[in-house]
Q: What sequence folds into this?
């Protein structure tokens, strides 16, 4: 059988030789004539256009017409590369900057390296090869540029390419059972996914956020979707005014976010519990939250405030006026740490935007009252804490008062939350507790400081008395001794 | 005594000053002593320390705040009858956390931060877990100490 | 007024013959010479001891000697009890000044060789009281049950445990167990307020009676009757009034120290916490502590620490029994060796103490 096939090949080769004289790539020439699929496909391949012969990947000598000679293992013939050999074969050129330059390519040469360190560069379940080879995504023999709409990694196709594995629950289970497989479905509900589905190659697809060769787990600090890196990843498109032209959305979100309380916590303090873009907008299903659901979204972290708000009179009033709940007062991307200046009826306070003395006097009075109470609690707490510090610095024992001061601090923080009930009674209850404690601590601190001065004065008085006694005692001794010496001389 | 040529007036002054000084001095010594002996407003030192109390007195599914030096520590006896103690100062903004029976977790009333029963911050704004303290059971007594 | 006083005086005199005592006191003289100033330190020590007794009793009214309450009760004393801060600070400061005054008193007696015959017993009782004073210091240091004291006691008792043979039982006895615990605190409390004061009072009684009985020691070759300018002064009232004047000053000094440098309480002891940095014994143990730290771990075939402790023990015994081996001084001859030894001891203590504070 083997003999027969070689005989047929021989005949064919001779036919080829006679048919196309001086063809440079003898492998291609013959294999195409044979009509085998890879050779047919290869015509469209970018590597064919660059004049890369079959032998570059499969080995052998492409100049030899004789099949035996061309595919002689002595000439380095490898046949079909398998396992990691596939990617290594690609890397012989794609990881070699010099070679790529001579071929006139400006592609980076780090893909192989990146792939190896990525989550896909780990050993597969077989334990013989890595999970993903170049060909897994780029296909083989019909490889084209990523910009070519027929490429499996072209933005509009990439989603399906990734989905081949990532939506396959039974396959994914073998690697990461807890990883969801519904990303694609969610993606199609997102703004990005809708645009992509409509054929907009500019809309973000998998690789836009996750990277292509260097895909890492979201928990990996080097990952593009790691919480602290995510804002920069999103902003690579969303802050690019040129790129975002035509979408009619602002491009200052990232700039605003980095200044916000969340941005500072996440980006500067590296508190990865702080929200990144995806925590409010969703990740695969990214979309701005709707007006009525804002308090729910913020409430995933700020639960107490959200609960209080939802049961407050503002909930209904905001919904009716289509006001975006939390955002109305706190803003969105540029949320600054909530300060008491938001509260009240002064010009910079937000309450007065709706509540004026004439039109809405009840809300106006409550807002003013709340601000006054928070102000006085703060002042009282500060005074008390100052007095305690002073007393402590003076060496007085005030540890108990200091302990108590925590309650005032807690009450103040709670009162800030209690504002969201927009209910005078509830608010007053919390603040009053704080005021009482702060007042008590203040009194104790004052007493401790007074006591310090009392000690100094007491000591002063005692020293004065002792000095007087000392001096008069000294004089007394002198007098006694003078008399003694007088009486002595007298007796002599 | 009168045989000495001394001016009686001067002698009287010195004696007067000395006696007066001594009386004042005695006052400045005895005043603090008597003030010290006077029972203070709070007649006895309060029991407040790392001894958290008797095991039998700590109900299941409860959290007790124990004063540990100048810091509050929360001693939790879980539904599974485990005893654990944590720094009760919320890592978010220094409020004092409490045990929420309903959630079976440590909970901060200020911003609804939650920690699981290993002290890990699992919900709300707290950025860090709570520092755990060691719980030692000595006979009937439950002791809390700092982890080294 | 004066008449009334005289009446009471004669009423008592009639019964207990006070006249004898006054007569005796009147006959007692204090020699005046260039080293007379050292005579005052005995009196100052006595005064400080009296202060310790008074303030100690006062503290006892509120202090609770148990592991759970010791620290809190001191905190209570200094924050809740009126003038508690003052009493507590004075007790702490006077304790230190007492050891200092006793030390000066001891060295002055040593250099004057006032221990020589016939005052051997006075010297012995004095030395025993000095050791007791150190015991007071060591036991009292633990009573506030704060971190520093806890670990210093641990280290201190550890050192005692090193002594071969008897060390282990001593350690167990002192700690009331393997470790420094609440039981140690109870034990130290007992020593501090009952055992030591009892013994101390007896020794002090003997000491004072002997001083009155034998009069003040005079330096070699002191002879006030030769008209060579050497004088004496009556103990009563001249010396006693001077004593009183000095006591007043000391009392004021204590008050100043207590107000301006209140004795710190620190943090409550925690047996499971790691030892804090900078555990130092009280200054009067520092030279011994420092020596043991500097001594090599092994000398020849013996443990360096053991050698150090045994050496200190031997030196202490030698020091205490100096009246019995210093024959020359008792015979009225000069003994330079004693001076050299004393100077060496003083310099050694000073240098090692300084080293202990800066190292």
A:
């Amino acid at each position: 059988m083997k003999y027969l096939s070689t005989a047929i090949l021989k005949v064919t080769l001779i036919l080829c030789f006679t048919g196309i004289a001086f063809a440079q790539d003898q492998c291609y020439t013959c294999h195409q004539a044979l009509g085998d699929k890879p050779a047919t496909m290869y015509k469209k391949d970018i590597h064919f256009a660059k004049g890369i012969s079959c032998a570059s990947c499969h080995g052998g000598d492409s100049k030899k017409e004789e099949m035996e000679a061309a595919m002689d293992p002595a000439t380095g013939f490898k046949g079909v590369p398998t396992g990691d050999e596939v990617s290594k074969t690609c890397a012989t050129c794609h990881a070699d900057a010099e070679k790529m330059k001579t071929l006139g390519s400006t592609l980076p040469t780090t893909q192989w390296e990146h792939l190896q360190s990525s989550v896909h560069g780990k050993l597969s379940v077989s334990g013989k090869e890595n999970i993903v080879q170049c060909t897994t995504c780029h296909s083989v023999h019909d490889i084209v540029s990523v910009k070519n709409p027929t490429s499996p990694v072209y933005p509009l196709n990439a989603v399906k390419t990734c989905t081949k594995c990532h939506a396959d629950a039974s396959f994914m289970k073998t690697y990461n059972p807890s990883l969801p497989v519904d990303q694609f479905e969610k993606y199609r509900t997102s703004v990005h996914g809708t645009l992509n589905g409509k054929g907009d190659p500019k809309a973000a697809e998998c690789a836009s956020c996750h990277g292509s060769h260097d895909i890492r787990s979201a928990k990996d600090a080097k990952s593009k979707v790691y919480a602290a890196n995510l804002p920069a990843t999103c902003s690579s498109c969303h802050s690019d005014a040129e790129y975002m032209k035509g979408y009619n959305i602002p491009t200052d979100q990232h700039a605003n976010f980095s200044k916000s309380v969340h941005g500072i916590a996440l980006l500067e303090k590296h508190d990865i519990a702080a929200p990144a873009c995806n925590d409010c907008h969703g990740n695969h299903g990214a979309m701005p939250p709707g007006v009525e659901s804002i308090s729910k979204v913020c409430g995933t972290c700020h639960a107490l405030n959200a609960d209080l708000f939802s049961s407050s009179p503002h909930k209904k009033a905001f919904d009716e006026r289509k006001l975006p709940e939390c955002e109305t007062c706190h803003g969105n991307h540029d949320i600054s740490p909530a300060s008491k200046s938001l509260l009240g009826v002064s010009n910079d306070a937000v309450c007065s935007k709706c509540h004026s003395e004439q039109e809405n006097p009840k809300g106006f009075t409550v807002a003013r009252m709340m601000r006054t109470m928070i102000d006085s609690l703060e002042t009282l707490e500060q005074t008390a804490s100052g007095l305690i510090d002073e007393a402590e610095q003076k060496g007085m024992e005030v540890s108990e008062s200091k302990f108590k001061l925590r309650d005032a601090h807690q009450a103040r923080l709670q009162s800030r939350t209690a504002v969201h009930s927009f209910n005078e009674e509830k608010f007053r209850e919390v603040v009053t507790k704080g005021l009482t404690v702060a007042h008590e601590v203040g009194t104790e601190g004052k007493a401790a400081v007074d006591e310090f001065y009392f000690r100094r004065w007491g000591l002063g008085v005692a020293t004065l008395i002792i000095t007087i006694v000392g001096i008069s005692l000294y004089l007394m001794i002198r007098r006694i001794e003078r008399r003694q010496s007088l009486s002595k001389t007298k007796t002599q | 005594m009168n045989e000495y040529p001394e001016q009686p007036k001067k002698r009287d002054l010195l004696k007067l000053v000395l006696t007066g000084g001594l009386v004042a001095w005695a006052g400045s010594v005895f005043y603090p002593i008597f003030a010290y002996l006077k029972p203070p407003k709070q007649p006895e030192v309060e029991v407040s320390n790392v001894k958290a109390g008797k095991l039998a007195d700590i109900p299941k599914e409860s959290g007790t705040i124990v004063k540990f030096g100048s810091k509050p520590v929360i001693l939790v006896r879980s539904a599974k009858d485990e005893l654990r103690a944590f720094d009760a100062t919320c890592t978010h903004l220094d409020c004092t956390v409490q045990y929420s029976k309903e959630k079976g977790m440590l909970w901060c009333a200020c911003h609804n931060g939650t920690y699981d029963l290993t002290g890990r911050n699992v919900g709300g704004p707290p950025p860090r877990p709570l520092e755990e303290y060691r719980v030692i059971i000595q006979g009937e007594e439950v002791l809390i100490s700092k982890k080294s | 007024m004066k008449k009334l006083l005289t009446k009471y005086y004669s009423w008592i005199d009639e019964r207990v013959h006070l006249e004898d005592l006054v007569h005796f006191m009147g006959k007692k003289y204090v020699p005046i010479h260039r080293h007379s100033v050292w005579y005052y330190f005995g009196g100052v020590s006595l005064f400080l001891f009296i202060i310790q007794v008074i303030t100690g009793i006062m503290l006892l009214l509120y202090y609770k000697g148990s592991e759970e309450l010791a620290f809190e009760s001191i905190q209570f004393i200094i924050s809740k009890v009126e003038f508690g801060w003052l009493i507590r600070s004075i007790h702490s400061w006077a304790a230190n000044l007492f050891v200092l005054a006793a030390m000066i008193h001891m060295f002055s007696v040593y250099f004057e060789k006032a221990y020589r015959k016939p005052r051997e017993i006075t010297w012995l009782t004095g030395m025993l009281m000095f050791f007791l004073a150190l015991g007071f210091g060591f036991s009292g240091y633990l009573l506030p049950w704060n971190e520093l004291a806890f670990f210093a006691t641990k280290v201190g008792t550890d050192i005692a445990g090193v002594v071969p043979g008897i060390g282990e039982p001593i350690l167990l006895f002192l700690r009331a167990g393997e470790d420094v615990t609440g039981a140690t605190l109870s034990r130290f409390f007992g020593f501090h307020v009952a055992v030591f004061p009892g013994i101390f009072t007896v020794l002090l009684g003997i000491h004072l009676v002997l001083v009155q009985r034998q009069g003040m020691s005079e330096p070699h070759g002191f002879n006030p009757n030769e008209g060579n300018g050497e004088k004496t002064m009556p103990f009563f009232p001249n010396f006693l009034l001077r004593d009183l004047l000095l006591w007043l000053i000391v009392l004021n000094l204590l008050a100043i120290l207590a107000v301006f440098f209140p004795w710190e309480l620190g943090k409550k002891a925690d047996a499971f916490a790691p030892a804090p940095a900078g555990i130092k014994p009280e200054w009067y143990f520092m030279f011994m502590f420092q020596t043991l730290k500097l001594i090599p771990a092994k000398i020849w075939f013996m443990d360096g620490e053991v050698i150090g402790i045994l050496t200190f023990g031997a030196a202490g015994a030698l020091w205490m029994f100096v009246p019995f081996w210093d024959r020359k001084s008792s015979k009225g001859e000069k003994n330079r060796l004693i001076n050299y030894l004393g100077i060496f001891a003083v310099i050694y203590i000073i240098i090692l103490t300084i080293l202990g504070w800066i190292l």
The radius of gyration of chain B is 30 Å.
